[in-house]
Automatic annotation (TrEMBL):
InterPro entries: Metalloenz_LuxS/M16, Pept_M16_N, Pept_M16_Zn_BS, Peptidase_M16, Peptidase_M16_C, PQQ_synth_PqqF, PqqF-like_C_4, PqqF_C_3. Residues 456-577 form the Coenzyme PQQ synthesis protein F C-terminal lobe domain. One of its GO terms (cellular component) is cytoplasm. Its cofactor is Zn(2+). GO terms for molecular function: metalloendopeptidase activity; zinc ion binding. PROSITE patterns: INSULINASE. Pathway: Cofactor biosynthesis; pyrroloquinoline quinone biosynthesis. This is Coenzyme PQQ synthesis protein F.
Length: 798
């Protein structure tokens, strides 16, 4: 395994008070910035709940120098990056990630929107309606209301119990005193002394520092204002309570332990290995999952939430579950943490090694200490001694070391058997030839489209089964956790009879992960019908639609039921694709993959085009708001059509958002972009609205599509070069590149897919796009609408 190239770090404070954290990591393909304001929803005047969130929204509405069509959001999206903001209890974050070539331009826009917000009255009135729509959705969202309910045991006067999102009633925009409060909050907190800028990228520390200094020049100087400390989390001497609903049990603990100590505790509480708390709960049928997290931390206060997803007998065992938790805490308090601290240091180091630019910048904006110190350990010991008094009764075990965190042992070199020497190399026995034949995997290939000189790669494995593939991955929870901690993100998805497993991250642990995967899938062969996990809490409607979209794109009705595989793996066929992997890793993966269940062979993909057809898929959701997704597949799987569709999406993204959300205000969850399913490229439009009917939402989308030719002809440039650069292997994050190459394989494209796609994007003309827009408007590739209501018109096929 190559020696990790740990990023170099520098912290400084500029003359105007701006604190800066710089992270230089040569391996990064992109740059990121996180701007943290030391003020959040708990810092606003009590008269105007939601003011901090409202101001965060207003800052994105453009400035004199950079109007909204050229503001931060549009600029970042135009260059294939990601951008967002978040208002939390005591902080507000603005963050983005972009290619290095446009990092300076994005920083200029962020600085300008912080220093020169318009705060115009008409902007405020429009944006307040967006917050009103979000408030309505929040009030109807089961998960959001669940989060409110679990905090009801806190002291009534603590701001965690309050409402902070903002709505039409809490934000009296036209009132003069509100305007003074808004301006006062901005002037007090949006100045250099209250801000921390974190930058991460492949540039040198000197280059990053120069960028940070230019950024700081735009900001007003000022001091760091102390934030008012909050009241006690709980009344009197109370420090813990339970909250129980039908499927979840929350155990909440108020304490003053450092965040670093609580993160350490949560890591081992969440462990899934035998001998741990979750394993015991599963054995008893009381819980199917456990998730411990720090829900809140500020000024010496912390709130720890230990959530149990209850099993069939769990709802009647809340007191017994609490007793088991206390027993485990007692065991943990009296355990030797030496090995765990070494393991934890490896986990933190590995995450630093694999984190992308945005994750690195966000981590350092939080200013947490690392590694775990003796003071942190002592604080945790003090907390655990407070939580329990009796010695542990259960025979608990600490989790074993993660096998993928350490260098893998090399197997003996192939090609020789006992008694042979190097002089006999090339002389093979019949047994060797037969063994070699068993390891030939015609369905497993490795793409050279990504350079193999990085530490990262990806592996996709897809099985075709003779029945529905739901539930197969239920037994892989421990493997997924260990893989993620070792720097490999591992996910599973089932669509109909296809089961797809993705790995992306450090390539060194991948062969060992594949070996363990083969063992676990083979062991699960006798019991493929796993216990169904508890039904998840319904999410907002548009998210429920997005989860169901892959099955709808494949014309598969999702029943939600688990089915056993009648023949196990005996009739299964699988294929795989590795990307960005060095030759030694490819060889090791082939050796490990030979043990995977099923037959390795190319799986024939049969396209089911819906050219010219209108398909309507209805999904019932818990929300009463109208939500829909319109997926418009390209007319064919040709690269030319894909290039046209990607350029259309590139041009439409910002205008679609501005038209429906900003001008028409028909919804708050408004987006568009490219999606690919089973090798088919489609343009996706999505909207959710609290007060506009489905038919009207669809009419607005269709009206926008009809205006695309005018948008194309009126654009100064089509953006060919900016879009083409996004598909360079040197600029693509590994996970994104892997998904593109996998979809290309499903579509039957060759190894030079990325190069051909870039060339086609660069050469598409205005006329090409006008013709493509006409095909889109006429549903040349068909339209699929997935909505939470009935079809809007007789021309839709149900």
């Amino acid at each position: 395994m190559p020696v990790p190239a740990h990023p170099h770090h520098l912290q400084l404070t500029l003359a105007n008070g701006l604190r800066v954290s710089l992270r230089h990591a040569p391996r990064l393909k992109r740059c990121a910035a996180v701007l943290r304001v030391a003020a959040g929803s708990h810092d606003v005047p009590l008269a105007w709940p939601g003011l901090a969130h409202f101001l965060e929204h207003l800052l994105f509405l453009g400035t004199e120098a950079f109007p909204a069509p050229d503001g931060l959001m549009a600029y970042v999206q135009r260059h294939g990056g990601q951008v967002n903001a978040s208002t939390r209890e005591r902080t507000t974050d603005f963050f983005f990630e972009v290619p290095a070539t446009v990092f300076d331009g994005a920083l200029q826009r962020l600085a300008d929107m912080l220093a020169h917000p318009r705060l115009a009255m008409d902007d405020q009135l429009r944006e307040r309606e967006v917050l009103q729509a979000e408030f309505i959705a929040w009030s109807q969202d089961a998960e959001a209301q669940h989060q409110v309910a679990i905090l009801e045991g806190l002291a009534a006067g603590h701001p965690l119990r309050g409402f902070h999102a903002g709505n039409r009633e809490s934000l009296p925009v036209p009132q003069e005193d509100f305007q003074q409060g808004l301006l006062g909050f901005y002037q007090d907190f949006y100045q250099a002394g209250q801000l921390t800028l974190s930058l991460a990228g492949p540039q040198s520390l000197e280059e990053l520092q120069a960028l940070a200094e230019r950024f700081g020049e735009c900001l007003r100087p000022g001091p760091l204002r102390p934030q008012q400390p909050p009241p006690a989390l709980m009344d009197g001497d109370k420090y813990r309570y339970q909250y129980l609903d039908n499927q979840h049990l929350h155990h909440l603990i108020a304490c003053n332990a450092p965040r670093e100590a609580l993160d350490f505790l949560c890591t081992w509480l969440n462990a899934t290995a035998p001998g741990g708390l979750l394993a015991e709960l599963k054995t008893r049928g009381w819980a199917s999952a456990l998730h411990a997290r720090v829900l809140y931390s500020f000024a010496g206060q912390a709130l720890l939430d230990i959530e149990f997803t209850l099993g069939p007998q769990g709802s009647q065992q809340s007191l017994a579950i609490e007793a088991l938790l206390n027993d485990w805490l007692s065991f943990f308090a009296h355990s030797d943490w030496t090995a765990l601290r070494e393991e934890y240091a490896l986990l933190i180091s590995r995450q630093q090694q694999i984190n992308g630019a945005l994750a690195l910048a966000r981590h350092h904006s939080e200013n947490r200490e690392a590694p775990l110190s003796e003071q942190h350990c002592q604080a945790l010991k003090t907390l655990l001694n407070l939580l329990q008094s009796a010695p542990a009764q259960q025979a608990w075990q600490l989790p074993p070391g993660n096998p993928f965190l350490r260098p893998q042992t090399q197997e003996p070199r192939p090609g020789l058997i006992r008694g042979q020497t190097s002089a006999h190399r090339g002389l093979r026995t019949f047994a060797q030839d037969r063994s070699r034949g068993r390891r030939e995997l015609p369905g497993l290939s490795f793409s050279q489209a990504l350079p193999a000189d990085y530490d990262e790669g990806a592996l996709y494995l897809c099985w075709q089964l003779d029945s529905a593939a739901h539930g197969i991955g239920n037994s892989l929870q421990t493997l997924q956790t260990n893989a993620r901690q070792a720097g490999v993100e591992m996910s599973c998805e089932a669509v109909g009879n296809c089961w797809l497993l993705k790995m992306s991250g450090l390539h060194d642990p991948m062969p060992a992960i594949v070996e363990q995967l083969a063992r676990e899938l083979t062991q699960a062969d006798a019991n493929l019908e796993q216990d169904a996990p508890a039904s998840p809490t319904p999410q907002m409607a548009i998210r429920e639609l997005l989860k169901a979209l892959p099955a709808c794109a494949a014309d598969i009705a999702s029943t939600g039921h688990l089915h056993p595989l009648p023949n196990g793996w005996t009739t299964a066929t699988w294929q795989g694709l590795g990307m960005g992997l060095p030759a030694a890793c490819e060889t090791a993966i082939k050796h490990a993959a030979a043990r995977l269940p099923g037959q390795c062979a190319e799986i024939a993909r049969i396209a089911h085009p819906i050219n010219g057809l209108y398909r309507w898929h209805q999904l019932d959701t818990a929300s009463t708001e109208a939500a829909l997704l319109l997926l418009c597949p390209a007319p064919s799987q040709s690269l030319a059509d894909e290039a046209d569709w990607r350029l259309l999406a590139h041009l439409a993204q910002t205008p679609f958002y501005q038209r429906l959300r900003g001008e028409l205000q028909v919804g708050y969850a408004v987006f568009s972009g490219i999606r690919q399913f089973n090798g088919q490229t489609g343009l996706l439009f999505g909207v959710q609205s609290p007060d506009v009917a489905l038919a009207d939402l669809l009419d607005h989308i269709q009206a926008f599509i009809k205006q695309l030719p005018a948008l194309i002809n009126g654009s100064d440039e089509l953006g060919n070069a900016a879009l083409a650069r996004q598909f360079s292997p040197q600029a693509l994050p590994t996970s994104q590149a892997a998904e593109l190459l996998w979809q290309a394989r499903l579509a039957g494209h060759g190894a030079n897919y990325l190069e051909q796609l870039r060339e086609l994007i660069q050469t598409r003309t205005r006329q090409h796009l006008v013709e493509a827009a006409a095909q889109l408007s006429q549903a040349a590739g068909g339209w699929r609408c997935l909505a939470n209501g009935a079809a809007a018109g007789d021309h839709w096929q149900i």
